[in-house]
Design goal:
Layout lengths: L1 H11 L20 E4 L4 E3 L7 E7 L7 H17 L4 E7 L11 H7 L4 E4 L2 H10 L4 E7 L3 E6 L3 E4 L5 E5 L5 H12 L3
Parallel strand pairs: 3-4, 4-5
Antiparallel strand pairs: 1-2, 1-5, 3-8, 6-7, 8-9
Helix pairs in contact: 2-5
Length: 187
């Protein structure tokens, strides 16, 4: 039920140019304290003052992550070209493999600015709960290892870490840019 509500909200919370957006009809987002792929502490607040495209996944994911993360990267570049700074962020759902130092190379393949976040099970659970993200081991693939089913929405956050809206991962980067500009250009 929650996933259906989230999907519908992403489709119906868009605004027309210059209009003020309405708050989401459900509570999502919140504070977290995690560690980036370089070992630096990181919260939901962007240290550079940029908006953020936040995704929950894992660096070596053979599934939806391999579609969503390139879309995020393309969106970040197009928004930069439009004069809007946005940081791509992934919070891992596979902390056993996404460790400090191990995430950088796979994430750089998507975008050099991708921030990968990990932490203790407790710290990660705080983020999962705040964003209503569920994860479950689906199976173990002989080539890729553990494969997880997990939440796949892309959350658009302002620089302070407030959720502005969310996007299903099947949107094109052009559509994400179009929608994100409406939210971030008013900031």
């Amino acid at each position: 039920m929650m996933r259906t509500a989230l999907f519908c909200a992403a489709l119906f919370t868009t605004t027309s140019a210059g209009a003020t957006s309405l708050p989401l009809p459900f509570d999502v987002g919140g504070d977290f304290e995690l560690t980036d792929q370089h070992g630096n502490p990181r919260t939901q607040i962007d240290p550079e003052g940029n908006g953020q495209l936040l995704f929950f996944g894992y660096a070596l994911c053979p599934g939806i992550c391999s579609s969503a993360m390139p879309m995020i990267a393309d969106s970040v570049d197009a928004l930069k070209d439009a004069g809007i700074g946005v940081t791509p962020v992934m919070i891992t759902i596979d902390p056993d493999r996404d460790k400090v130092g191990d995430m950088n190379a796979p994430l750089e393949k998507y975008h050099p600015d991708f921030v990968g976040l990990t932490g203790s099970e407790t710290a990660l659970q705080v983020a999962y709960d705040a964003y209503s993200v569920e994860k479950e081991l689906a199976y173990v693939d002989p080539e890729y290892g553990p494969v997880y089913s997990h939440g796949s929405f892309v959350y658009l956050l302002d620089a302070e870490g407030n959720v502005l809206t969310l996007f299903p991962p099947i949107l094109s980067s052009e559509r994400v840019v179009e929608l994100a500009e409406k939210y971030l250009s008013d900031e």
